[in-house]
Specification:
Strand order of the largest sheet: 2-1-6-5-4-3
CATH architecture: Roll
Number of strands: 6
CATH class: Alpha Beta
Largest sheet: 6 strands, mixed
Shape: globular
Structural class: alpha+beta
Strand content: 35-45%
Distance between the termini: 37 Å
Length: 147
Protein backbone atom coordinates (compact mmCIF):
# COMPACT_ATOMS: atom_id res chain seq x y z
CA UNK A 1 0.00 0.00 0.00
CA UNK A 2 1.18 3.50 -0.73
CA UNK A 3 1.74 5.09 2.68
CA UNK A 4 2.29 8.62 1.36
CA UNK A 5 0.26 11.12 3.37
CA UNK A 6 0.04 8.88 6.44
CA UNK A 7 1.85 9.56 9.70
CA UNK A 8 5.28 7.83 9.64
CA UNK A 9 4.42 5.47 12.51
CA UNK A 10 1.33 4.23 10.63
CA UNK A 11 3.48 3.65 7.55
CA UNK A 12 5.92 1.59 9.64
CA UNK A 13 3.10 -0.66 10.87
CA UNK A 14 1.80 -1.15 7.32
CA UNK A 15 5.27 -1.97 6.00
CA UNK A 16 5.89 -4.41 8.86
CA UNK A 17 2.66 -6.31 8.15
CA UNK A 18 2.93 -6.34 4.36
CA UNK A 19 6.52 -7.65 4.51
CA UNK A 20 5.92 -10.10 7.38
CA UNK A 21 7.83 -13.40 7.21
CA UNK A 22 9.39 -15.52 9.96
CA UNK A 23 12.65 -13.65 9.25
CA UNK A 24 11.04 -10.20 9.68
CA UNK A 25 9.00 -10.99 12.79
CA UNK A 26 11.35 -8.98 15.03
CA UNK A 27 10.65 -5.92 12.86
CA UNK A 28 6.92 -6.34 13.38
CA UNK A 29 7.29 -6.71 17.14
CA UNK A 30 9.45 -3.56 17.25
CA UNK A 31 6.54 -1.32 16.16
CA UNK A 32 4.67 -2.34 19.35
CA UNK A 33 5.20 -0.96 22.86
CA UNK A 34 6.64 -3.48 25.35
CA UNK A 35 3.29 -3.98 27.08
CA UNK A 36 1.08 -3.67 23.99
CA UNK A 37 -2.19 -5.58 23.95
CA UNK A 38 -3.24 -7.56 20.86
CA UNK A 39 -6.84 -8.79 20.51
CA UNK A 40 -8.40 -10.81 17.69
CA UNK A 41 -11.21 -13.42 17.61
CA UNK A 42 -8.78 -16.10 18.88
CA UNK A 43 -6.25 -14.23 21.03
CA UNK A 44 -6.05 -11.63 23.77
CA UNK A 45 -2.39 -11.21 24.69
CA UNK A 46 -0.09 -8.59 26.13
CA UNK A 47 3.63 -7.95 25.60
CA UNK A 48 6.27 -8.63 22.99
CA UNK A 49 6.77 -12.29 23.88
CA UNK A 50 3.08 -13.14 23.62
CA UNK A 51 2.72 -11.16 20.40
CA UNK A 52 5.68 -13.00 18.89
CA UNK A 53 4.10 -16.33 19.92
CA UNK A 54 0.82 -15.47 18.13
CA UNK A 55 2.64 -14.85 14.85
CA UNK A 56 5.05 -17.79 15.26
CA UNK A 57 1.98 -20.01 15.66
CA UNK A 58 0.48 -18.46 12.51
CA UNK A 59 3.60 -19.37 10.52
CA UNK A 60 3.62 -22.91 11.96
CA UNK A 61 -0.09 -23.54 11.30
CA UNK A 62 -0.48 -21.96 7.85
CA UNK A 63 1.27 -21.97 4.49
CA UNK A 64 2.10 -18.67 2.79
CA UNK A 65 0.31 -16.28 5.17
CA UNK A 66 0.28 -12.75 3.79
CA UNK A 67 -1.28 -9.44 4.81
CA UNK A 68 -2.25 -6.83 2.25
CA UNK A 69 -3.37 -3.51 3.67
CA UNK A 70 -6.23 -2.21 1.55
CA UNK A 71 -6.85 1.17 3.17
CA UNK A 72 -5.67 3.18 6.15
CA UNK A 73 -6.50 6.34 8.00
CA UNK A 74 -5.30 7.76 11.24
CA UNK A 75 -3.44 10.38 13.21
CA UNK A 76 -0.82 10.54 15.95
CA UNK A 77 -3.01 8.71 18.47
CA UNK A 78 -4.78 6.00 16.47
CA UNK A 79 -5.28 4.35 13.10
CA UNK A 80 -7.80 2.14 11.36
CA UNK A 81 -6.58 -0.31 8.72
CA UNK A 82 -8.61 -2.56 6.43
CA UNK A 83 -6.80 -5.62 5.15
CA UNK A 84 -6.93 -8.95 3.35
CA UNK A 85 -5.17 -11.89 5.00
CA UNK A 86 -4.43 -14.69 2.52
CA UNK A 87 -3.12 -18.14 3.40
CA UNK A 88 -3.32 -21.84 2.61
CA UNK A 89 -4.15 -24.46 5.21
CA UNK A 90 -1.42 -27.06 5.61
CA UNK A 91 -1.96 -29.87 3.11
CA UNK A 92 -4.42 -27.89 0.96
CA UNK A 93 -3.89 -26.05 -2.32
CA UNK A 94 -6.74 -23.54 -2.04
CA UNK A 95 -5.77 -20.01 -1.00
CA UNK A 96 -8.24 -18.56 1.47
CA UNK A 97 -8.69 -14.87 2.22
CA UNK A 98 -10.03 -13.28 5.37
CA UNK A 99 -11.13 -9.66 5.13
CA UNK A 100 -10.89 -7.59 8.25
CA UNK A 101 -9.91 -4.39 9.95
CA UNK A 102 -7.60 -3.31 12.76
CA UNK A 103 -7.98 -0.44 15.19
CA UNK A 104 -4.60 0.66 16.55
CA UNK A 105 -3.74 3.00 19.43
CA UNK A 106 -0.27 4.58 19.64
CA UNK A 107 1.87 5.97 22.44
CA UNK A 108 3.73 9.28 22.14
CA UNK A 109 6.67 7.47 20.50
CA UNK A 110 4.42 6.11 17.74
CA UNK A 111 4.44 2.53 19.01
CA UNK A 112 1.27 0.43 19.04
CA UNK A 113 -0.19 0.11 22.55
CA UNK A 114 -3.48 -1.55 21.58
CA UNK A 115 -4.23 -3.57 18.45
CA UNK A 116 -7.77 -4.86 18.06
CA UNK A 117 -8.73 -6.90 14.98
CA UNK A 118 -12.29 -7.08 13.70
CA UNK A 119 -13.31 -9.89 11.36
CA UNK A 120 -16.10 -12.43 11.16
CA UNK A 121 -14.66 -15.72 12.41
CA UNK A 122 -18.01 -17.50 11.99
CA UNK A 123 -18.40 -16.65 8.31
CA UNK A 124 -14.76 -16.69 7.30
CA UNK A 125 -13.47 -19.68 9.31
CA UNK A 126 -16.10 -21.72 11.13
CA UNK A 127 -18.41 -22.04 8.11
CA UNK A 128 -15.59 -23.88 6.33
CA UNK A 129 -15.64 -26.68 8.92
CA UNK A 130 -17.81 -29.46 7.39
CA UNK A 131 -20.54 -30.17 10.00
CA UNK A 132 -20.23 -26.91 11.89
CA UNK A 133 -20.29 -24.94 8.65
CA UNK A 134 -23.58 -26.46 7.53
CA UNK A 135 -25.16 -25.65 10.89
CA UNK A 136 -23.90 -22.06 10.84
CA UNK A 137 -25.07 -21.46 7.26
CA UNK A 138 -28.53 -22.81 8.19
CA UNK A 139 -28.62 -20.58 11.27
CA UNK A 140 -27.52 -17.54 9.25
CA UNK A 141 -30.36 -18.13 6.76
CA UNK A 142 -32.88 -18.50 9.61
CA UNK A 143 -31.79 -15.25 11.24
CA UNK A 144 -31.47 -13.18 8.06
CA UNK A 145 -34.09 -10.60 7.17
CA UNK A 146 -36.52 -11.81 4.53
CA UNK A 147 -36.08 -9.31 1.69
Amino acid sequence: MNTRGLAPHIGRVITAYESLTPATLAGLVSVYAEDARFIDPFNDVRGHGALRSVFEHMFEALDAPRFQIVDALGDAAQAFLTWDFSFRRRGHDETLTIRGASHLHFDTKGRVTLHRDYWDAAQQVYERVPLLGALLRWLRRRLAAQV
